[in-house]
Structure formats: C-alpha cells, structure tokens
Amino acid sequence: MADAENPTELIAEMGRRARSAALVLASMPSARKAAALASAAESIRAASAGIVVANAEDMTRAADAGLSGALLDRLRLDEARVAAMSDGVAAVAALADPVGQVIDSSERPNGLRLSRVRVPIGVIGIIYESRPNVTADAAALCVMAGNAAILRGGSEAVKSNRAIHAALVEGLKAGGVPVDAVQLVPTTDRAAVGAMLKADGVIDLIIPRGGKSLVARVQAEARVPVLAHLDGINHVYVDASADPAMAAAVVVDAKMRRTGVCGSMETLLIDRDYADAPALIRGLAATGCEVRGDARARMLVPEIAAADAADWDTEYLDAIASVAIVDGLDAAVAHIARHGSHHTDAIIAEDSGVAERFLTAVDSAIVLWNASTQFADGGEFGLGAEIGIATGRLHARGPVALEGLTTYKWIGRGTGQVRG
Q1: Which ranges of 175-294 would DSSP assign to H, the alpha helix?
Q2: Three-state DSSP class for 37?
Q3: Which residue has the higher pLDDT, 283 or 4?
Q4: What does the pLDDT read at residue 300?
Q5: In terms of residue numbers, what domain contains 269?
Q6: Helices 30-46 and 79-93 sit at what angle, rounded to 10 degrees?
Q7: pTM
Q8: Cα distance between residue 266 and residue 315, in whole Å
Q9: What secondary structure does DSSP assign to 120-172, as a single string?
Q10: In a shared domain, residues 154 and 266
Q11: Residue 392 within a domain
Q12: pLDDT tens-digit map of 72-106
C-alpha cells in the first residue's frame, strides 16, 4: 500500500487497484453480484454490535467537538439503523441489474443495426460527511452497477466507517467480489480529498455528499466529472384549495419527521386565501419547531419570530422553519425559483389544475403533490439505497441509484457495410 502520508501516491495506487477490480465487476454476472451483496448485507447485520460500539466512540468525539444536533443525528447509529443499512444493501441485491440493458435500438437503411447499451462508469469516488450509512449504500450501488468505489468519509465518522467497511468487504469477498472493488481511504487528512479531486484518469466520477462547503470545494477544485447536489432548501406550498387536515399532517411530517435530512421542508408557503393558515402555523409550532414568519404571517400569528432575509436561503437541518404568506400559485413558484435549491418542493391542493401547473412550473429534481418532502429518498422511490439526490440537469437527477451509476455505449452490428 502506498504511504498514507503522500495523498497523491495513495489515491493513485487505490485507483489502480480499483480499476482492476472494475474490469472484473463489469463482466460479472448479475446473479453473482446479487449473491455477493446479499452476503455483505448479512455480514453487516452480524457485525451490528461492533458497529454500534464504534459509532458510540464517534458520537462522543463529535459531541465534544461541538457538532450540531442535525449532524449528530446524521452520525448516530443504533441497532435499528444498522439493520436498516443491512436491509438497504439486501434491497439493492434484489434490484434489476442495469448493466447490459438495451436502452433503444434501430436499423439504418443500409442494414446496420445500432443499439445503446448500459455499461458501468468505472471507478467512482464518493466523498461524504457525517452519515456512516453512506459507506454501505454507496458500496452496494456501485458494485451492483459494475463500478469500483473509493470511499472517503468524514473524520467525525472514522471508526463507524471502518467498522462498516470491514464487515461489508468481508461479505463481498465471500461472494466472490474482488476486495479492491470497495476501498476506504485510510487517512483523515483533508489532502486526500484534494488528491481525489485531481485524479483525472484514475477516478471517472466524483460524488460528494455533505454540506455546502464540501460541495463548493469539490465543484471548485475537481478535475474529475462531478455529480453533486447542493442544499435541500425545500418548500411546501399550501394552496387555497388544500384540505386542512391533510395540510397539517403533511407540513408537520415534512419538517419534523427528521429535521436533519436533505428532504426536510425548510420553508412553508401559504396562499393568502387559505383560511386555516393560523391553525397550520400554530400546529407546526406546537411540535417544537421554531417558526420564523414574514410580516403577513406574523399578522396572523403574532407570537412567532420574525424572519430575516437570510432565512429564505437557509437549509436549517434543524427544528426551524420559515413561513411566508404568498399571493397564490405564481407567487409561490416565483419564491421557489428565487430561493430554492432545485431539490424537492411540494404542493398541497385539492384543485388538480393548480397542482398540475405547480408540477410543471417548479424546476426541481423532485416535485410532489399532496405528499411530504421527506419522500425524497431512493428507498421510497423503489430504487433501493441511494447515493445522493442530484440537483443538476445533466446525466442523473433526483435520487441517484443503479441507473444513475451507469453510462452507455453504442453497439453496431453490420454485415460488411462500408461508407464508400
């Protein structure tokens, strides 16, 4: 193994080993990959107690370092979360393998038959913070899609990541997958991140999962293609036609189910003609959420705090929400366009015409009608685990799972055709 004190050399060697493993994975039969992932899922489940102990050490260090409640929630593992992690790996094993799938085909007038076929991307680098479950999720998705993975987790989760990785690789190895198919960067030196970002030709794609500062660094420094998402500044717009009971339930769930996830609602927009706005706002506040409102919201509910300009552009990842009263659908859409992050936005409405206009007009990766923004999750979309929510417009958008981790190539089958 290369010297961990030389990040460039370290990443180059990891990349060479990953490339060799990727070549094996690219031609590995679907059933064999699925069996290896099922083995990995069982290995994680069997190692649950050790993973939880390792995580407790990370939690203690993180709390002492002053990490926020939202980040601590993302970091925390218990037996139930480890079991869910194992289930996620098993769910990926049960999914249809996209590799080799024919996207479309045609025959040219000269008889040349063309098809576009899904193939693995190759070597994927994942740089992530706080969430140790990404170690398992990312590995499972990469392996099933025929890619090798180089994982670089945050220093706050180092013991958790190592415990999960050890269990995962043990299961994969037992299933016949090369041990270098999933590698964990062994150093917490931030220079290793820089080495990954500059590893053009070694790593084929970088996927960052973390806060705004991490994603900004990746996008600024990367010499490797990046598949990224920015903040989850998500909105729920409650139309005048909304059913009050539904609106109350969806708004509370969207904000308070788990405040630290990227699908959490950060801003509530309420149509000025929605009659139950005071009850809706007070109901959210009653759950323990700090509500910050614009002037119109505070006229309806004077006891809430005043929102300032920064609130509309903040991903709280905490029990805080901003609330604005808007002049109907067009104003709501304009607010989302100005302040949103193209992640997940929802409308609560009984008027289908209004709802369809919202679904068309809002330019986000996920747009929902009468459903909580907390459904922004690959598992909830039936994709198994996810590697992230992509908010760009190229290659993949929304929850990135197996299909998003493939590219395609053209295959032509001829009978001696020449252009002449």
Answers
A1: 191-197, 212-221, 244-256, 277-286
A2: helix
A3: 283
A4: 97
A5: 234-375
A6: 170
A7: 0.85
A8: 6
A9: E--EEEEEE-S-THHHHHHHHHHHHTT-EEEEE--GGGHHHHHHHHHHHHHHH
A10: no
A11: no
A12: 988 999 999 999 999 999 999 999 999 999 999 99
